[in-house]
Amino acid sequence: MATAVLHYTGVSVGYQGTPVVTGVDLDVDAGQRLALIGPNGAGKTTLIKSMLGLTEVLAGTATVAGRTPAKARGQAGYVPQSGSLDPDFPVSVQQVVMMGRYRRLGWWRPARATDRAAVTGALERVGLADRARHRFGTLSGGQRQRVLLARAVAAEPSLLLLDEPFNGVDAVSQEAILRVLREASEAGTAVVFSTHDLAVARDLADRVCLINGRQWALGPPAETLTAGPLRQAYGRSALEVSDGRMLLVEP
Known about the structure:
- The protein has 251 residues and is of the alpha/beta class.
- Helix content is 31%, strand content 27%.
- The chain has a six-stranded mixed sheet, with helices on both faces.
- The protein is globular, with a radius of gyration of 18 Å.
- The mean pLDDT is 89.
């Protein structure tokens, strides 16, 4: 039986011994797409960072490709929330994407032909090959997010982690990101992403994990993105369901 790319059983994660999210039980196999859904402050970012070994696993078992998240970090590609890379830093788009190759390349070795090809291919996938020599900071917010996705893809990861990748991006960038995530999963990459957009989660994810301090539900979108589970996870937030559309209104 194949080992899940991501395996969490009875996991609690947090900082300095204080839990932020508890009771997490999930498996993500190669090629699967998992959406993390919950209100602001629910612990989605903390949970994603735990998959990189950047936050503490306080209880339970957490593995990535059969190893601890910290030891398997080289197998993960990470797209943080937009704004994580200073747009004023004097670096080109191509240089940003090449950062995704550093674990394979090493910090002091010159880029090889395979590295340059991986960078070019990643930029082509996000539709920004023509911007390779542009300064990163001159791009729009949506374009910068696509560059950060290209950086993660260039690492050729077995697990792709994205923290709110659709926040503040234009329609063109959103479609490009969705296309790349579908292509990545079809090629066998496990994908985990957090989002507030329930429509995106419904259309993109194979499974949805509802969290707010703890895991409230896990299952297919048709089961989890419904009134009962969402009201549990969001507390007193109002939920309207009509014409197949769901709207969460923060109290």
